[in-house]
From TrEMBL:
<dbReference type="InterPro" id="IPR043129">
    <property type="entry name" value="ATPase_NBD"/>
</dbReference>
<protein>
    <submittedName>
        <fullName>Predicted hexokinase</fullName>
    </submittedName>
</protein>
<dbReference type="InterPro" id="IPR052519">
    <property type="entry name" value="Euk-type_GlcNAc_Kinase"/>
</dbReference>
<dbReference type="GO" id="GO:0016301">
    <property type="term" value="F:kinase activity"/>
</dbReference>
<dbReference type="InterPro" id="IPR002731">
    <property type="entry name" value="ATPase_BadF"/>
</dbReference>
<keyword id="KW-0418">Kinase</keyword>
<keyword id="KW-0808">Transferase</keyword>
<dbReference type="Pfam" id="PF01869">
    <property type="entry name" value="BcrAD_BadFG"/>
</dbReference>
<feature type="domain" description="ATPase BadF/BadG/BcrA/BcrD type">
    <location>
        <begin position="6"/>
        <end position="297"/>
    </location>
</feature>
Length: 339
């Protein structure tokens, strides 16, 4: 038996083709699978493209796929679900597709079948806690209403502080303004308005600047360090809020997954310190990256098929890393920002 699992994020879609033993045979990556940021038609096209790449690299025919699981934001219970699924697979195969909530599926990539707290700092920010049958979300309100601590938030704050420096409203010295000009390919900082006030906004492109802020913080740039501390504090608040509302004084594991963890260690180090300073009995587990989220969908698929006893998290992580090395250089550069 062969399966396909997909994680459709705001900036990238990851699809994997795997066997009933959980062995990954092929991976495909494409653009945004989030219908809110890409639109239904484009999101469906990107998901379809990632699936075809995964099937091709697994050297199997799509007709051999027993079931599909697709983890998406905001689609599980929406009337767009059927429209999106129909754009991904042939009509006669739609009954084989299970649509998952991306947060619930992603949670399993850190604590499969376990209680715990997971933060997910990608382009945005959302966090989840699970205790028995209770599953709770904190944050994840989008780039206007919330997402504090996520990549877009960090980039937005860096741009705000950059314009304060440009105006002479800040007493902080930083290399961030120079990196802003280089990243956005502008000669004068006032030109930034033409880069950020677009319709629709280039959320993913702006958010990617957060990795530069993180690296500058590691080099002890004062402003970058302050911004990473601010963002880590926001992420830590998600964890402590879930701890206090769900677990009380019980010990609980916490971890995360998301692209921000790949930029540098500083973000996770600060989050962990803040949380443990407040709750020293909590148990941290090292975070994974955004492209590991699809592991949660693999676990849920195998569980549904009563095959989860064969699931081994460490083996799945290693398998994902091996597949990352096998995908095309273009996919790595365009969607994972690996150069």
């Amino acid at each position: 038996m062969m399966f396909i699992s997909v994680d459709g994020g705001a900036t990238k879609t990851v699809a994997v083709c795997y066997s009933e033993e959980g062995i990954i045979h092929g991976m495909g990556i494409s653009g945004s699978g989030n219908y809110r940021t890409a639109g239904v038609e484009k999101a469906g096209k990107n998901i379809r493209e990632a699936i075809l790449r995964a099937v091709h690299r697994a050297d199997v025919d799509e007709s051999e796929i027993t079931k599909f699981s697709i983890a998406l934001a905001g689609v599980k219970d929406s009337n767009l679900k059927n429209e999106l699924v129909s754009s991904i697979v042939d009509k006669e195969r739609t009954s084989r597709v299970r649509v998952l909530n991306d947060g619930e599926a992603g949670f399993e990539c850190r604590f499969p079948g376990m209680d715990g707290i997971v933060i997910c700092p990608g382009t945005g920010m959302v966090s989840y806690g699970r205790k028995g049958n209770i599953f709770k979300r904190v944050s994840g309100w989008g780039w206007i209403l919330g997402d504090e601590g996520g990549a877009f938030y960090i980039a937005k704050r860096a741009l705000q502080e950059t314009m304060k420096i440009y105006d002479g409203r800040s007493g902080i010295k930083s290399d961030i303004p120079d990196y802003v000009k280089d990243y956005f390919q502008i000669n004068d900082l006032k030109e930034i308005v033409n880069k950020v006030y677009t319709n629709p906004p280039e959320i993913g492109s702006i958010a990617s600047f957060a990795s530069i802020v993180s690296k500058l913080a590691e080099k002890e740039d004062v402003l970058a360090t302050l911004l990473m501390e601010e963002s880590a504090a926001e992420a830590a608040r998600c964890i402590t809020s879930l701890r206090e509302s769900m677990f009380g004084v019980e010990k609980v594991h916490f971890s995360g997954y998301g692209g921000l963890f790949r930029a540098s260690n500083i973000y996770w180090d600060k989050i962990r310190k803040i949380v443990l300073d407040q709750h020293p009995d909590m148990i941290p587990s090292e975070p994974l990256y955004g492209y590991h989220a699809v592991i949660g969908s693999i676990y849920l698929m195998l569980k549904e098929e009563n095959m989860d006893l064969k699931f081994d998290l460490d083996s799945e992580v290693k398998s994902i890393e091996e597949q990352i090395r096998r995908i095309s250089e273009d996919e790595r550069e365009r969607y994972l920002l690996m150069h």
